[in-house]
Design a protein that fits this description.
Layout: E1 2-4, E2 15-26, E3 41-51, E4 56-61, H1 65-68, H2 72-83, H3 95-105, H4 110-128, E5 145-146, E6 149-151, H5 156-168, E7 173-177, H6 182-195, E8 201-205, H7 212-222, E9 226-230, H8 238-248, E10 252-254, H9 261-270, E11 275-278, H10 280-283, H11 286-298, E12 302-305, H12 312-324, H13 336-339, E13 346-348, E14 352-353, E15 356-357, E16 367-369
Helix pairs in contact: 2-4, 5-6, 6-7, 7-8, 9-11
């Protein structure tokens, strides 16, 4: 769907037109998890916002229904009917006011709002001639940051083969999905540790798959191996997370438990975690992600920015957020640029070096729909 108000003249920097559509892209990383078998092709909701003088910002929402309750179709519906019409003729640089308009129209729906937030930041960066990280407090990671590759639940040899592929490409951190069968998880992670070089770090993610006793059993067995464990038990069980931390000494990263700054406050008060994952679809975009990052920093917690199977557009927004956050010993999960510079529908100008993502210098996100780069 496309809206165009160009017949009604407006100042150059106001939002004159918008579009919203669903594209389908083969995933560059299929991950079977405790939620089930991964999709080979995933839907992505792409948004454009264009000013009166023809500058376009790009945004994306890649749905994870198990996280936010939103599907590609529901995201597109809310964007077209309620959220994007709220921005017609608004000044594109009034980002906070524009985002407040979305909240006035509709509560929740964070993935849908993230697409708009990202497009607004891309547009503002282009209008100001600056990379998006300059709009988020500026560049903190001048040398860039390392990223990790994730491996889904599978047979031991398949997991080892994937791991050796990624380590041969230079990746120094691997994330392994667990959470279905505790004893098999222990065996698989230990076999992986024996197979990869000693300087490769391993983290695990159970996606809420364990109960407290199983989580304690698995993490006790792997305490000498894993960098941390992500979301071992149900998101609501903050008391259980604190119990697991105390019983095993293994760092805990919360993902499903934290969608908003208020959620993180509850985690901090419960002493339930050591780190927090920031996914822009959970927190409504870059503004919410930066708020969570700042709050985590005040509590002495590190953040890991995670791309949930996004195309280059959504993942580029995560890159800019990660570049604006303080130094951290933990790799972010934004590796699409290291393994796939472009696909048939999106393209990026995000520089990389082996397992490191470097700061882009181009205005805006440095990523867009492929059709925008094609000759007319």
């Amino acid at each position: 769907m496309v809206y165009n108000a160009m017949s009604n003249p407006s100042p150059a920097h106001t939002i004159a037109s918008w579009s919203c559509r669903i594209i389908h892209v083969p995933t560059h990383s299929r991950l079977d998890t405790s939620y089930g078998v991964a999709e080979a092709v995933r839907p992505h909701v792409m948004v454009t916002l264009t000013t009166g003088d023809g500058v376009t910002g790009y945004g994306e929402a890649s749905p994870l229904p198990m996280f936010t309750g939103e599907t590609a179709e529901s995201i597109q519906l809310q964007l077209q009917q309620l959220l994007l019409p709220a921005l017609e003729k608004c000044h594109s640089l009034d980002i906070d006011d524009n985002l407040a308009r979305l909240d006035e129209r509709l509560p929740g729906n964070h993935a849908a709002k993230a697409a708009v937030d990202i497009a607004l930041h891309d547009l503002a960066g282009k209008l100001l001639g600056q990379p998006v990280y300059r709009l988020l407090g500026g560049l903190r990671r001048h040398a860039g940051f390392p990223v990790t590759r994730a491996i889904g639940i599978g047979a031991i040899q398949d997991v080892i083969d994937q791991a050796l592929k990624w380590t041969a490409m230079g990746f120094k951190t691997l994330k392994i999905k667990v959470g279905l069968k505790p004893q098999e998880d222990i065996a698989r992670v230990r076999a992986l540790r024996d197979a990869v070089p000693a300087d490769v770090s391993i983290r695990i993610d159970a996606n809420q798959g364990y109960d407290v006793p199983d989580a304690i059993r698995v993490l006790s067995a792997l305490a000498d191996i894993v960098q941390y464990c992500e979301q071992p038990i149900a998101a609501w069980n903050l008391r259980g997370l604190r119990q697991i931390r105390a019983a095993t000494g293994v760092r805990i990263l919360v993902d499903e438990s934290v969608h908003t700054p208020r959620d993180l406050l509850a985690v901090i008060e419960a002493q339930a975690a050591d780190l927090v994952a920031i996914k822009l679809i959970k927190c409504g975009g870059l503004r919410g992600g930066r708020l969570i990052g700042d709050l985590a920093g005040l509590a002495g917690m590190h953040c890991v920015v995670v791309s949930p199977f996004e195309t280059h557009v959504g993942a580029a927004a995560g890159v800019h957020l990660a570049l604006s956050l303080p130094e951290s010993p933990f790799a972010h999960e934004l590796s699409i640029f290291n393994v796939e510079a472009r696909n048939q529908q999106t393209v990026a100008q995000i520089p990389t070096a082996r397992d490191v993502v470097l700061p882009p210098l181009v205005p805006g996100l440095g990523a867009q729909l492929e059709e925008a780069t094609s000759p007319a």
